[in-house]
Amino acid sequence: MRGWVLILVLVLLGGCGGADGPVIDLSERIDDRELQVMAPQAEDDVIRVGFELRASPQEDARQYLPFLHYLAAATGQRFSLRFTPSGVSLDRELAQGRVQLALMGAVGYIKTHRDSGAIILARGLNREGRDKYRSFIVVTPESPLRQLDELRGHRLAFGSRDSTQGHLIPRIMLARIGLGLQDLAGYAYTGSHQACANAVLAGRFDACGMQDTMARDMAKAGLLRVLARSREYPSSGVVASAGLDAGLRERIREALLAFDPEADYMGDFYHWERTEMPRGFTRASDADYAELRRWVRRLGLLPAMEGRE
C-alpha cells in the first residue's frame, strides 16, 4: 500500500520558504534520500495534497507521509504530497487545481473558500482532544519584555503571511490591546513557525508569534519564554477543492473522522504529536470560522477579495 503514496518534489527543498540564519531543529533530521521521487509524474487519479510549512519541508513531509499512507488504505485512493513553491500561496494552489486537498489554517481556508468555493472537511484535535488552538508570542528567556504591551517599539517576527497562528492571531492579540504594525520598530514574515523562532534565537527580532505546540515544546526545553498566549480559536483542518468528486470527498471525510493516531498507526508515524491534529479530527463547517473571517476583514488581510463572497 505504501507504493500508492507518491511524492511530487516539484521545487528544490531550499525554495520552500524559511529564512536565512541559524536553524535549530526540534527533531531528528530526515535523510534527503527519503524524499526521492517515487514516480516520474502524477497520474490523473492521484489526489495531490498540499500543506502549510510548519517546521521544515523535510520534517513536515516525514510527518505527513504516513498520514497519506493511512488515507490510501482507508479510501482505496492514491495520494501524493506536493510542496508549495516559494512565493506561491497554498490557497492559490488549491483554487487553481494544483492540489485537491490541503492541510491549512483559517486564513488559507477563508481565502480559497471565497475564491473557489473550497470545502472544509474536518478540523484537527489538539493534545487535549479539543478542536481549538492558540497562538503564543515568545521571547528569549533573558528578554526584558514581560507584558504584551511592551512590544511597542520592538521588532516582531511572524511566520508566513498567510499563517493563522503565525500571523492572523498574533495580529488579533496586538489589536485587542490597541497595537498595530505601525507601533513596532519592525516586523517580517519568516515563512514558517520554526524560522520565526530561529529569528528570535538569532537575535534578529525581539519576539515571535507562533504555533502553540511548538512554542510550548521550545519553552519546556528552555529555548524560549512565553510572553503572551491568545484565546482559543478553531483549529486547522483538511480542505478539499470544490472540483473534487463529491463521493470521494465524503470517503475522505469519513476516513479523517475515523483516524485514530493513538491506535494501530502510531508506530509508523514520525512525531505526529507535534502536528496540529495529534488526536485526529472532528467535523467542521464554514460557520466555525465566522469570527476569524471578521478579523481577517477588519485587519485588511483580504482587500482584493472584498465583495466576492
Q: In CATH terms, what is the fold-level topology of the largest domain?
A: D-Maltodextrin-Binding Protein, domain 2
Please identify, by name, the CATH architecture of the largest domain.
3-Layer(aba) Sandwich
Physical arrangement of strands within the biggest beta sheet: 1-3-2-4-13-5-14
Class by alpha and beta content: alpha/beta
Q: Helix-strand pattern, N to C?
A: EEHEHEHEEEEHEHEHEEEHEH
Q: Domain count, please report it.
A: 2
Question: What is the CATH level 1 assignment of the largest domain?
Answer: Alpha Beta
Shape: globular
The tally of strands reads 14
Number of helices: 8
Mean model confidence by pLDDT: 83
Poorly predicted regions are: 1-42, 305-309
Q: By CATH's scheme, which homologous superfamily of the largest domain applies?
A: Periplasmic binding protein-like II
Sheet with the most strands?
7 strands, mixed
Task: Please state roughly what percent of the residues sit in beta strands, choosing from under 5%, 5-15%, 15-25%, 25-35%, 35-45% or over 45%.
Answer: 15-25%
Oligomer: single chain
What helical percentage do the residues reach? 25-40%
What's the N-to-C terminus distance? 41 Å
Question: Whole-number radius of gyration?
Answer: 19 Å
